[in-house]
């Protein structure tokens, strides 16, 4: 660990840990998240972001920290600092010091924080710390979480009848699900483009998926493929850290027909996560509405994440919402100009 800027074990000091030191700290957290690992920063660095880990240490141990991504604001107005699904603190009293340290170390005009805390978890009083809730989110704030700690029969029983039936038909077919390789990334990217166009959401480039594969797999993730008679019908990228797995990217072909490849591959991903010791499986991203609204509208709407909600709702999970996005302002003049630009754009 790099040397702290001030000595003494009582008052934490700002440090710059190495990537292995930071990842070890993240893995030890109860809310460890894949987006706070150094490979995520390395991935984003290839696509226009910079990054910095800001940590506070005392007694030779990290006590609080966050990995932040940095992007230059338009017209040379400074930097936006973004902390996805972070940060962490051994004691809540350390959070204000962490937010201040991020401003000092990055020189950002403001910090956009998506802490990832679920709304039913112990409160993180962001407003009391000086944050303001932001209408601009980067990660989807609402998701569906599956409990996969039970036996297969119990997991299946929680699903709706249609999903359960399609999984069983998929398993009874000659669909072949297994680990993909780097050679599959071109076909996977093409399937992603088809799926995004069909469901109305944007997708990353093939270069992005190649970088994600290189940086995360096999240690933190897997590319799973589903083929029928040699034809690739579905593929997904899943990630895992600690007891939680995330389904971040997935694609399927219209040609899957009665083979139901998108159901077979998702069931294979759940088995992959369970084999790694995961107890929850995050389907990652549904429209940001309460469950009653989701259920009332999903048959009529296909825009944005509505197109995938109809698929994800059948897996027997629970709709959950995080605290969403919050902004901590270091430079009010720049921040107000930024918010004004967003209003004009919208």
CATH superfamily of the largest domain: Gcn5-related N-acetyltransferase (GNAT)
CATH class of the largest domain, named Alpha Beta
Count of DSSP H/I helices: 11
How does CATH name the architecture of the largest domain? 3-Layer(aba) Sandwich
* Poorly predicted regions: 2-8
Structural class: alpha+beta
The value of Rg in angstroms is 21 Å
* Beta-strand residue fraction: 25-35%
Q: What is the average of the pLDDT values?
A: 93
Question: Would you give the CATH topology of the largest domain?
Answer: Aminopeptidase
What is the element string, with H for helices and E for strands? EHHEEEEHEEEHHEHHEEEHEHHEEH
Overall geometry: globular
Number of structural domains: 2
Q: Summarize the amount of helix as a percent range.
A: 25-40%
**DSSP summary, beta strand count:** 15
Quaternary structure annotation: single chain
Query: Termini separation (Å)?
Result: 44 Å
- Largest sheet properties: 8 strands, mixed
Textual characterization of the structure:
By secondary structure, the protein is an alpha+beta fold. It has helices spanning 19-27, 38-45, 95-106, 152-158, 161-172, 185-199, 206-216, 261-275, 291-297, 306-312, 332-345; strands at residues 13-15, 50-58, 61-72, 79-84, 88-89, 110-114, 132-133, 142-147, 176-179, 221-228, 231-241, 244-252, 280-282, 318-321, 326-329. It has two domains: 13-138 and 323-345, Aminopeptidase (3-Layer(aba) Sandwich); 142-321, Gcn5-related N-acetyltransferase (GNAT) (Aminopeptidase). 34% of the residues lie in helices and 25% in strands. The chain is globular, with a radius of gyration of 21 Å. Mean pLDDT is 93; it is low at 2-8.
